[in-house]
Amino acid sequence: MRGKLQQAGLVMVGLCAGVALSLNYSASANKEAAAPLPVEELRAFAEVFNAIKQGYVEPVEDKKLITNAISGMLSGLDPHSTYLDPEAYKDLQVGTQGEFGGLGIEVGMEDGFVKVISPIEDTPAFRAGVRPGDLIIKLDDTAVKGMTLNDAVKKMRGKPKTSIKLTIARKGENKPIELTLMREVIQVQSVKARMVEPGIAYLRVAQFQENTAPAIAKELTKLDKQGIKAIVLDLRNDPGGLLHAAVGVSGAFLPAQALVVSTDGRTDDSRHKFYVAPQDYLRGSKDDFLKTVPAAAKSAPMVVLVNGASASASEIVAGALQDHKRAVVVGTQTFGKGSVQSILPLAGNTAIKLTTARYYTPSGRSIQAKGIAPDIVVDDTPNGSFQRLREADLERHLETPAAAPEAAPAKAEPSAKAKPAGKGKEKDGEEQDAPLAPFEIGGKNDHQLAQALNVLKGMQIVQKTR
């Protein structure tokens, strides 16, 4: 018996070595010397594999064991690296097109529970009052503790018009909150636009998808017919999305060939600079939509609104417009998701999402675990800001590098006078007032938007007096 185990173990070591060699070959574009294979660790893996095969209480398929091993390797790296089975891979591809099934929640994993990063606007989760930072502890009657993130997401998704009960733990609440949500086909309207006041164009980006940048260009052209004198670009609660969409949106407001973002990682193909250039924002043979953008988009006074749920692509756009002094950034510190995930397809319609680089703003500032500091700090409401989960709160998050390549000094953090992250938080042993009431972004009671308009009016006055 032991002889068979040792023989099988050697076969598994050989198999793992072959996989490791193939992965090492593809990752050696930086021409670094290949590190020796960890033979002892691979032998330990093989012994565990065979111990499970031979002695586990129930038979387990080889495929399941290997898949779980791959998933564990990736999830142990950082919060954003993960294994995508065929269903998850398909969902990822469909999601970038702006339509998918489920509840409409951007989620991560912390302490074995699903933690809400941001609900997507106009979805069941958003309408039910799910908030950033909520901890989902049960799905129907099943405890989330012990599930993988993929398993939890699968359980939340399902056929439209079927219901699911979420049990949520929320800071400031004495007992769990139970919400019953009806699943829908989630169709995210990426861009909404209108004249919020005469001459002031308001553009809201909910998520960066394939059609986001062309939609921004189209809406700017429409609004320009009414006369654009100032612009508000609202990126609050935007969890991000596609990099080329972020470059395209930035390009609507920046001059041609302006640097938008750079990436830096270990391999040559992870080091790149993205400019306002067709090769960096177009896909396929599409027409260059930026050629239709009106001149006012490049010169009118501009404010970018951000908050703690503005992440990834949103931070790229805000950072680029801030560094080029094209816009004043107003709101609260952003989420701080400044890492690049590459999708590497595997056999069987599966893939891995692997963190391969960090993002840097045009001046060389790292976004990772820090975010974009607004030029003018404005809380979510007149009474303070909501508590939100940020990248720096996630387990195993990548740290901000000590120094970015050719980096300029980072902008100062928000003023120490800025209010803490909302009420409902215990301080000095006393519980503060009830949690702040949510509001409609872009609505009548939107405190940050009102302050952004005040900033713009001041900028317009300054321009006129020059």
From TrEMBL:
The entry's keywords: Hydrolase, Protease, Serine protease, Signal
Q: Where is the composition biased (Low complexity)?
A: 401-421
- Source organism of the structure: Niveibacterium microcysteis
Presence of keyword Protease: yes
Quote the NCBIfam families the UniProt record gives.
Answer: prc
Q: Which domain of life is it from?
A: Bacteria
Q: Which residues form the signal peptide?
A: 1-22
Q: Which family does it belong to?
A: Belongs to the peptidase S41A family.
Q: Where is this region: Disordered?
A: 401-443
Identify this protein by name.
Answer: S41 family peptidase
Which one Pfam family would you cite for this protein? PDZ_2
Statement: the UniProt record of this protein carries the keyword Chloroplast: no
PDZ domain span: 89-157
